[in-house]
Design brief:
Helices cover 36% and strands 13% of the residues. It is an alpha+beta fold. It folds into two domains: 54 residues, no CATH class; 113 residues, no CATH class. The strands form two sheets. Strands 3-4-6-5 form a four-stranded antiparallel beta sheet, with helices on one face. A two-stranded antiparallel sheet has the order 1-2. The chain is elongated and about 55 Å long.
């Protein structure tokens, strides 16, 4: 069984960029993470180091939250795309828009570095492992309005289907606009009807080619 990372290595992993997985640390620390299969050194200059999927899993293996805890506070310092319906959504305004724009550009760079052909027009492995966050980031970065805890707007939710998320939006025009945004971001999108409520929703999956 692989030994867990040391405390110093864990601090490097925890401090990785939440979207791209870019690492900062000493060369011995980074080399040790590469040797353990938790990081890789990008072959192109400036040869930065990034978390592998195994490294991302360790980063996300957070300690159990105390009973009664809900979402992390909006000022926790970790970027999270709005999936819609959050009880404690992050603050809106210019600072949030800059943060979202930076996260989206970072994701495009991650696509360029990790897709085998360097393509940025289709999702990468990180997005396939974080479907809800990836779809929500594409929508928020394009300016769509996420739902509040009790208001209209988009809501991105996981589904039982592999590599598929559901996007709910009560406004039909806004739902179609969400479909266009996801298609432009490299997702395959279909519109469906909920049998019980007859509400329309999107089913979206990352495109592979």
């Amino acid at each position: 069984m692989t030994r867990p990372p040391t405390a110093a290595q864990r601090r490097v992993i925890d401090a990785a960029d939440p979207v791209t997985g870019r690492l900062r640390g000493t060369q011995p620390q980074l080399a040790a993470l590469v040797q353990r299969g938790l990081a890789f050194r990008h072959p192109r200059p400036p040869h930065d180091h990034f978390l592998t999927p195994a490294g991302h899993r360790i980063r996300e293996r957070a300690a159990p939250e105390p009973p009664g805890s809900a979402a992390p506070p909006a000022d926790s310092g970790v970027f999270t795309a709005r999936v819609g319906g959050e009880e404690h959504p992050p603050q809106t305004g210019p600072a949030r828009r800059r943060e979202v724009h930076s996260a989206w550009q970072g994701l495009l760079e991650l696509r360029r570095m990790t897709n085998t052909d360097g393509a940025t027009d289709r999702p990468c492995g990180w997005e396939r492992a974080h479907l809800v966050q990836a779809a929500a980031l594409a929508l928020e970065a394009a300016g769509h309005r996420p739902a509040g805890s009790d208001t209209g707007g988009y809501r991105v939710r996981a589904t039982p289907q592999p590599e598929a998320v559901a996007v709910h939006e009560p406004d039909a025009d806004a739902l179609r606009a969400c479909a266009g945004t996801l298609e432009e971001a490299g997702w395959q999108v279909g519109e469906h009807t909920e049998p019980r409520t007859r509400a329309r929703y999107l089913l979206a999956s990352p495109r592979r080619a």
